[in-house]
Specification:
By secondary structure, this protein is an alpha+beta fold. It has one domain. It is 31% helix and 18% strand. It has helices spanning 31-43, 58-75, 80-83, and strands at residues 15-20, 47-52, 99-103, 109-111. Strands 2-1-3-4 form a four-stranded mixed β-sheet, sandwiched between helices. Strand 1 (15-20), helix 1 and strand 2 form a beta-alpha-beta unit. The longest helix is centred in the middle third of the chain and has 18 residues, at 58-75. It is globular. The two termini are 23 Å apart.
């Protein structure tokens, strides 16, 4: 797969954040491939942040989860069941279920 950006592209302040846990291998996600693609995007001057949540406490994981929940509220999408349960909404976030957040120009999550 190759990534090409036009020479006369308009620069946007979009930011991509990928949450994963290097100590966990998700069932349906090729984390290594995603990391390779994100690193190539960094080389193309895309604002990419990669967060390895290995060793994060439940509180730190939950704080990061609330970044994603803001995007869900704006997009009117229910993501709680993807990253956990009603009682523990964030326990899978960035671990067994990696998360890719795309922030728009005003740094609001626009895609989860």
């Amino acid at each position: 797969m190759s990534i090409h950006l036009s020479e006369n592209r308009q620069t946007r302040s979009t930011r991509i954040v990928f949450y994963y846990d290097s100590s966990v291998q998700p069932k349906d996600c090729d984390v290594k491939r995603i990391l390779d693609i994100l690193k190539r995007l960094r080389g193309l001057e895309v604002n990419v942040k990669i967060v390895d949540m290995d060793g994060y406490s439940d509180e730190e994981r939950t704080r990061s989860y609330f970044d994603a929940i803001i995007g869900a509220v704006i997009q009117r999408a229910a993501i709680r069941q993807v990253f956990g349960s009603r009682k523990m909404p964030a326990f899978l976030f960035g671990g067994e279920v990696p998360a890719l957040l795309i922030y728009d120009e005003v740094l609001v999550v626009s895609q989860v």
